[in-house]
Amino acid sequence: MRRYDAIKSIMEHITNEIVVANIGFPSRELYEIKDRNRNFYMIGSMGLASSIGLGLALSQEEKTIIIDGDGSILMNLGSLVTIANQNPDNLILIIIDNHVYGSTGNQPTYTQNINLLRIAKSIGFKNSHDFNKISFKDILTKKQTNSTFIHYKTSSGNANVEIIDLTPESIKKRFMNSIK
Ligand SMILES: Cc1ncc(C[n+]2csc(CCOP(=O)(O)OP(=O)(O)O)c2C)c(N)n1
Fold this sequence. Notes:
By secondary structure, the protein is an alpha/beta fold. It has one domain (3-179): Rossmann fold (3-Layer(aba) Sandwich), CATH 3.40.50. Helix content is 40%, strand content 19%. It has helices spanning 3-11, 25-34, 49-59, 70-75, 77-86, 116-123, 136-141, 168-179; strands at 18-21, 39-41, 64-69, 91-97, 100-101, 107-108, 127-130, 148-153. Strands 2-1-3-4-8-7 form a 6-stranded parallel sheet, with helices on both faces. A two-stranded antiparallel sheet has the order 5-6. Helix 1 (3-11) packs across helix 2 (25-34) and helix 3 packs parallel to helix 5. The relative contact order is 0.20. Thiamine diphosphate binds next to helix 2, helix 4 and strand 5.
């Protein structure tokens, strides 16, 4: 399974939740699969989807789903530690781990040697799961008492999708209006 199908399998359960997507192809694929005002396509800064998602989860009550990548979370491991310690119960961090920097040409990341799920557990995530061993729908719909970390292993490869036909400013405006 590639990232595109992983995002599809996540989005089929999403109703009104906030979704923050990683830079590059993850955002482009999400845009094609299910564009909505409540998607925040983080098309500027690699590594910051998790930090932006944490800020959103802390500042309002709705569930915030972050779809991040292995390369990006490795670039901002501090964010993982901060999320585990702040521990908002409305935050679900999903790492799509394709073991490469897929959006820039499949250069290998260090998750070829290390296990992000074990890192999350060792940092202190009480809810940390392998996507293939859980019911994502249950986690999404039942109230959680801690932040959730989900490791979603996929193969590499980008779908043949268009670039996002929205300016960064309009992405931000429509997103902010939708969560007011
Ligand atoms: C600071 C910074 N470094 C590098 C890049 C270039 N870049 C954009 S996306 C990306 C790869 C992201 O990889 P990952 O988070 O694993 O997601 P994937 O594309 O594999 O789903 C890179 C290196 C960037 N935008 N910003």
